[in-house]
Please model this.
Amino acid sequence: MAGNPRNGRRYRSLTARQRAKGLPCWLCGKAIAYWITGPEAGKHPDAFTLDHALPLSRGGDLHDEANARSAHRRCNSARGNRMEFQQHGRASRRW
Model:
């Protein structure tokens, strides 16, 4: 049984190169907390994650640098595998 391809050297290298760019989240445009690393990064909503413009489940290439994007964990999770993403702010209390 093959291992998880996201644990491979090529994927970790791509993630490191994308992180080093220090770009804002491509989904919401806000700054990413790149200083959050290690185990806490897997839980923090503002932490960096590598997102793919063309989701892997829709034919995107796991190792394609042109498909790699920097995103917040929360934005990446909210987008899921949809091609478009609309960030919703908090609802106004005045209706």
